[in-house]
Amino acid sequence: MEISSHKKGLLKLLPGVDTLMEKIKQQASGADVPQTVIVKAIRLVINSLRDQILMADDRIGEEFVSEQKIIKQISDQIKSEMSPNLCRVINATGVVVHTNLGRSLLSCDAIKEMAIISGSYSNLEFDLDTGKRGSRYTAVENLICDVCGCEAAMVVNNNAAAVLLCLDTLARGKEVIVSRGELVEIGGSFRIPDVMLKSGSVLKEVGTTNRTHLKDYQNAISDHTALLLKVHTSNYAIIGFTKSVSLKELVKLGADMGFPVMEDLGSGMFVDFSKYGLPKEPTVQESLLAGTDIVTFSGDKLLGGPQAGIICGKTDIIENIRKNPLTRALRIDKLTLSALEHTLRLYRDEEKAIKAIPTLNMLTMPFDTIEKKAVRMKSILNGLNNPLLKTTLIDLPSKAGGGSLPALNIPSKCVGLSIEGVSANKIETHMRCCAIPVIGRIEDDVFVMDMRTVMENEFPVIKDAINDLLNTIKSPHMQ
Ligand SMILES: *Cc1c(COP(=O)(O)O)cnc(C)c1O
User: What CA–CA distance (Å, rounded) separates 435 from 103?
Assistant: First the structure.
């Protein structure tokens, strides 16, 4: 295609890389930016402008290549390159264990200790008493045993890894009997049948989706059987005409027939939630008390710690798991280990745990407290004194999240925001794209923020974000 002389003229007007480099470096914001980042940003902007000129019609004017505008575009590009990719956000969704937003927040203790370990050498695998090599797992094994009352314990990267490792150790090349009602899929493509395939064990499904009887398990047992597995249906509920075999019955069957019984609890719980007005979730202690040989669960779901998979149960099985070469590939990192240790320490005093572990604190937060927060947030926003902004208090339920307590709606208080002439979608997008993103949701065409998961020290950030949005509406060229 022939390029018009007008466009050729515009292309010639594009400033050179060296000129732009000098200008950017003179700016205060350009001072600490690596040269490579500046060059990349300049090339990106100039190439894009060149393409736009070529694609445009001949009416495109010289202001398109104004140096001031180009420098602004490059500065914006550099700013975006220099800001962290993984960044803090404000969770105003009311979903406490939000997998997409990083699941659990750590307690202050865990954060403090983790920071120390990250900047110092540690006794990670060094026995300070003997001066010899030690085990990475001693930092948490006794604590887990104390809190859940098990014989032995072991930790890996996450619960998916824990399940894989247990199946590989206990049932490679053999059959694992599972109820059809428990063939769970959780987000991120973890499916019990797939994990089983990877572990080299064979899935033996028994019963039907809604009903499984003890005799179904009994009939499935053969020479090929290695393990009876129970999976906590953590992210869905089967209701109506249902029947499942209790852990107790399964443990008895396992003991009678000489097979170990494993339970994948998904989100592990040490605290009986029914004491705090929430529905009962099976606890790790109960599973072990029922006689389960091996129990696995997540560190960062309802437990409120770092991403980890915890395996606890009988000593001989844990010993075999430790010896499995897969263990090395799935091993837990020292920062995680430190955070997990200090989360577990809090559980030695339940009252303390509820206060100090953010996940537990938010889940058990009294409605009054949330309502007070909502009232305060609303009045801070009203303090912006903008006639276009309308704030409301709305009763909407929060969710536990993390694939746990699926049927649970916890009454909560939200602050609803509407701005005259601005759609709820536009508000949602603006809040999500702020320097510190605020993630809320839209209900009945209103942008709402659930105050259960928003902390008081985040209120000013939310206020600033909304103020910025209001300011863009005020400026005349945006109208
Ligand atoms: C969440 C979950 C897992 C996986 O745990 P991660 O810690 O996310 O790897 C496995 N099984 C069940 C039943 C779960 O709910």
Answer: 21
* Average pLDDT taken over every residue of the chain: 93
Go through the domains of the chain in sequence order and give each one's CATH number.
Answer: 5-82 (no CATH), 90-98+364-478 (3.90.1150.180), 108-356 (3.40.640.10)
Give the pLDDT of residue 268: 87
Q: Identify whether the C-beta of residue 164 lies closer than 8 Å to the C-beta of residue 137.
A: no
d(CA 271, CA 283): 7
**Nearest Cα to 77, choosing from 51, 56, 47, 53?**
47
Q: Is the pTM of this model over 0.70?
A: yes
Q: How confident is the model at residue 479 (pLDDT cuts 50, 70, 90)?
A: very low
Q: Which residue has its alpha carbon closest to ligand 1 atom 6?
A: 159
Residue 474 is predicted with a pLDDT of 67
Residues with CB under 6 A from ligand 1: 158-160, 163, 184, 186, 190, 231-232, 234, 264, 266-267, 298, 309, 403
Calpha distance 405→366 (Å, rounded): 18
Q: Which residues pair with 152 in a beta bridge?
A: 313
CA of 18 to the centre of ligand 1 (A): 53
- C-alpha 263 to ligand 1 mean position (Å): 12
